[in-house]
Amino acid sequence: MKFQKHIFICTNQRADGRESCGELKGFELIEFFKNKVIQNDLRVEVRAQRAGCLDVCTHGAAMVVYPEGVFYGKVEKSDIDEIF
């Protein structure tokens, strides 16, 4: 199966206790994006999944969409419809 789009949402959690995407909103955003994929019947074309560190913690909650390679930072629930 080859997906046309991949939505990678950072869920990194830093061991040193510093703020990270996972704590900010990463886990919540995964559920929202997965629900959008299902609601739009795109399970064959689009995959929303968690990712490890995207190395942009200062811009979290962070995500990237491929194949375009577009990064998003400080993503909020209110951004989901526009990004999707």
Keywords:
single chain, 84 residues, alpha+beta, four-stranded mixed sheet, 4 strands, globular
Structure description:
27% of the residues lie in helices and 23% in strands. The chain has helices at residues 21-39, 80-83, and strands at 5-10, 46-51, 63-66, 70-72. The model has no long low-confidence stretch (mean pLDDT 89). The protein is α+β, with helices and mostly antiparallel strands and 84 residues long. The radius of gyration is 12 Å and the shape is globular. Strand 1, helix 1 (21-39) and strand 2 form a beta-alpha-beta unit. It has a four-stranded mixed β-sheet. The protein has two helices and four strands.
User: Per DSSP, what share of the residues sits in E-state strands of 2 or more residues?
Assistant: 15-25%
Give helix % range: 25-40%
Shape: globular
Tell me the series of helices and strands, N- to C-terminal.
EHEEEH
Largest sheet: 4 strands, mixed
Low-confidence stretches: none
Average pLDDT works out at 89
Assembly classification: single chain
Task: Calculate the terminal CA-CA distance, rounded to whole Å.
Answer: 21 Å
**Radius of gyration, taken over Cα atoms and rounded to an integer in Å:** 12 Å
What is the strand arrangement across the widest sheet?
Answer: 2-1-3-4
Figure out the total of helices: 2
Structural class: alpha+beta
Count the beta strands: 4
Summed up, what is this model?
With 84 residues, the protein is of the alpha+beta class.
